[in-house]
UniProtKB/TrEMBL annotation:
Locations listed in the record: Cell membrane
Natural source organism: Candidatus Rhodobacter oscarellae
Name the UniProt record assigns to this protein: Putrescine transport system permease protein potI
Gene Ontology BP annotations: transmembrane transport
Pfam families: BPD_transp_1
């Protein structure tokens, strides 16, 4: 076995430092959230307990933690479903060139480079000037779609760019209608990608701050509530909240990955059963 070059260890050390920089703040907050009842916001820790996690479930003197969590969760589901549906429809539409398709594509992607706070300000102004109530479920929902839809559409464009149209042609030769082709051929094949789009939509919405800042109205989402708490909460309860929200995000990701694994396993089982039937 040949010895590894010195550059390997340099790159490995650089990658380790990058991981420490990436996850160090989150781990620090998680550690500090387990302080005792007399703990503060900095090291050294004063005891170890679950006191601040229990404090989250008691009546809070400031803030609306669980109300903001429910709003972020519902908003994330709304954005997720809309992103998946519109992305699939857009991906199907862009499979064939049409007049203005290139301009429309660049307009969609341009929203990603516009500063988020400007999008939030613009959407809020449109709603208020139109006489519509500025609310997290309407203007906030619209502002977040300007962030999630371009990602979903880019994924769908990449998926359909590599999609083998022979499967659709075979289904049509067997008498399938256009809807049956989409329902029984296209959607099952692109299902793993749909899970990815759904995960993008939910997670981007769940932790979005800038595009929700001026469009949520008088009710905060969870990121806005956490930001507000940083100005008036001086106990590790804020760290405990951060730890729980991080764990929730990881559970959501794990759930989507589990669904993708189950779908892949189911498809493999069906393929194996079909092969046995042919034999």
């Amino acid at each position: 076995m040949e010895p590894r070059p010195r550059s390997f260890y340099v790159l490995a050390a650089f990658f380790a430092l990058f991981l420490a920089f990436l996850y160090g703040p989150t781990l620090t907050i998680a550690i500090l959230s387990f302080q005792g009842p007399g703990g503060g916001l900095t090291f050294p820790m004063r005891g170890v307990s679950l006191h601040w996690f229990a404090d989250l479930f008691e009546q809070q003197a400031v803030g609306d933690i669980w109300g903001s969590f429910r709003r972020s969760f519902v908003l994330g589901l709304m954005v997720m479903v809309t992103t998946v549906v519109v992305s699939v429809m857009g991906g199907l539409a862009f499979r064939k060139r049409f007049a203005g398709s290139a301009v429309l594509f660049y307009l969609i992607i341009t929203s990603l480079v516009i500063p988020s706070i400007l999008v939030s300000l613009g959407v809020g102004l449109i709603w208020s000037q139109s006489g519509l109530p500025v609310h997290w479920s309407t203007s906030g929902f619209g502002a977040q779609l300007t962030w999630t839809l371009p990602f979903g559409l880019l994924i769908m464009f990449a998926v359909f760019n590599r999609f083998d149209k022979s499967y659709e042609e075979a289904a049509r030769d067997l008498g399938a209608s256009n809807w049956q082709v989409v329902r029984h051929v296209v959607l099952p094949i692109i299902a793993p990608s749909l899970i990815g789009v759904a995960l993008f939509g939910f997670t981007l919405s769940y932790d979005e701050f800038a595009r929700t800042l001026l469009t949520s109205g008088s009710y905060n989402t969870l990121p806005l509530e956490i930001f507000g708490m940083t100005t008036n909460v001086t106990t590790p309860v804020l760290f405990a909240l951060g730890t729980l929200t991080t764990v929730f995000s990881l559970l959501v990701i794990a759930g989507f990955l589990g669904i993708a694994w189950l779908m892949r396993r189911r498809q493999a089982t069906k393929g194996s059963d079909a092969g046995k039937g042919l034999v």
